[in-house]
């Protein structure tokens, strides 16, 4: 543990950070330190992350530690370049130098066959069977379908016959599936010939006097390197493998696939969470829109009621002024009649009375007209102010809703590109940077609008 902390301290004294383009170059130094033992991954039989000492859990299984290293190496933008390079080196070290530490308890897709001593021979893979001592004339008259039907119980894929006009006998190769079921079928194919004493050993013993029976066995290393059409075909179509080697390779591939599946499932869970979060946000946005619409409708109704009340008030005042004017007219008429009755009234007095009456009537009419105009202008101005206020509210509501929808759409696209995009693709990174800048501008516009 003391060595671990010293290596961590020495390594943390490097430059503060690096760019994304330098990750592959920078990971070589921590990888060399891991190989040299300056940075310890396995301590007292326990796997731990030397770059997260004291911060994260330090009791990992092989699969979990590899997933941790890969996840940080391909992490989000808030991870520093140095952290990504360190964990990229750790993932490389686990895959190459600590592959033997792979957790044997993880589930595999296939069930490997436990190899016996005989099965440790070098087989030709994909699995193939060899048939010899076919009579040339008989083989030439038969098609591949005949042999496929004859050996159908072993589920062969193809049968290739090799005819030689100069030879009395011919040969054939039977190909099987390249999985474990194909190996079992090839083994049963070989055992069937051995049971009838027509296997490879029997052919070697009776080669000079084989009779008319056919012989067969699974293709192995000596067949692979042999001369003739059989050897050429095996070298062209297959390669030599051991059972244990195939088991180890399949185990490594399955382990990597299992890790990738786990990471994909985790990313899908995160996307599902983000989807639910966006759905809830959209629901709240729609509820806010409905609330603002209700407020808008209520404000419109209030303005309509106010307009009706103003018109009613103006009509009532106009009616009141008309009544007062009519009353004064009647008084003036009565006075005029009284004056006319006076016989001693002079002509100048009559003219003065008429002028006074006309002047009074004109003043009253002008006053009534001014009041009506003033009330009409006041109602018109109040109505225009209310309509302007409604239009302004509508514009603000539309602008706010559009910005919120654009922001949510940009956030969703960024999340999808982060989880499913290629971090090494410069074009994808540039597009994400452009979308991030656009998102920040829209958030700032929304804050200014509010």
From TrEMBL:
Biased composition (Acidic residues): 12-21
Name of one Pfam family that matches: XS
Region Disordered: start-end pairs: 1-21, 334-356
Taxonomy, superkingdom: Eukaryota
Alphabetized UniProt keyword annotations: Coiled coil, RNA-mediated gene silencing
Keyword Coiled coil: yes
Gene Ontology BP, a term: gene silencing by siRNA-directed DNA methylation
XS domain location: 120-225
Protein name as catalogued: XS domain-containing protein/zf-XS domain-containing protein
Organism expressing this protein natively: Cephalotus follicularis
